[in-house]
Amino acid sequence: MKPNIHPSYQQVVFHDTAADKFFIIGSTLSTSRTIELKGITYPYVPIDVSSESHPFYTGKQKVNKSDGRVAKFNQRFGVLGSKK
């Protein structure tokens, strides 16, 4: 490998502001903001959504089967084809 061409890999704190959770993850992301967590200073990146707050991962996702083209078609014409 060539020296000095790769970004620096470091531990970064990602803060999910919706759930108020902190994640320490290895990343090449660079930022000027820092935070002290557990006595160690890390680069800090706030994020809006993570696995702690996303509805798909928390089980609070709403699934509407009444939306979409197929559902609208079945609402209009589904009963016509079922009688024989």
From TrEMBL:
Keywords attached to this entry: Ribonucleoprotein, Ribosomal protein
GO MF entries: structural constituent of ribosome
Listed GO CC annotations: ribonucleoprotein complex; ribosome
Pfam families, A to Z: Ribosomal_L31
Highest taxon of source: Bacteria
Signal peptide from the UniProt entry: none
GO biological process: translation
Record carries keyword Transport: no
Known partners and oligomeric status: Part of the 50S ribosomal subunit.
PANTHER family per the UniProt record, alphabetical: 50S RIBOSOMAL PROTEIN L31, CHLOROPLASTIC, LARGE RIBOSOMAL SUBUNIT PROTEIN BL31C
Family: Belongs to the bacterial ribosomal protein bL31 family. Type B subfamily.
Protein's name according to its UniProt entry: Large ribosomal subunit protein bL31B
Originating species: Pseudoalteromonas tunicata D2
